[in-house]
Amino acid sequence: TSDTMVRVIELLDGCPSIETVDITGGAPEMNPHFRELVRTARRLNKEVIDRCNLTILMEDGQEDLAEFLAAQGVRVVASLPCYTSDNVDKQRGKGTFGASIDGLRRLNALGYGHPGTGLELDLVYNPGGAFLPPAQEALEADYRERLGRDFDIVFSKLLTLANLPVNRFAESLERRGELTAY
Fold it and tell me: From residue 88, how far is each of 1, 14, 58 by CA, in Å?
């Protein structure tokens, strides 16, 4: 809400030890106060991270979002569960991979992910099931090779996450009898 955003800005303004504003929540860019929060945080010299769902960059009404993020110097951290369309579309829905690639291309065209631009673009891998991710360094090399070769996409770094067995994921593991082993 507007009241929440105003309060967050008051806290940021009154607490110089807060250096980073990390905005997340599915598609935080859809919040009507997102851009005002970003602008104000940047004016206060805070680093801003947008946990961006890449498909939002292709949505109606968000045509200028990538340019806004770049103009504000926002670090983009975006989930991309794989570098192949079959895996991503299976996990996230048909057409998600293509829209994500288009979003990445839009960000790359603005300088995101290119060394020396100051526009950081980090990708995030987390497994789609009850298993741990591969070694981050090796997986990052695979992502760089495949996304570069197949789509001419660059990024700053790959982050790998393991899923915590809580809420729906824990319930799913429990139903399949896999919770203890996981």
Answer: 32, 42, 17
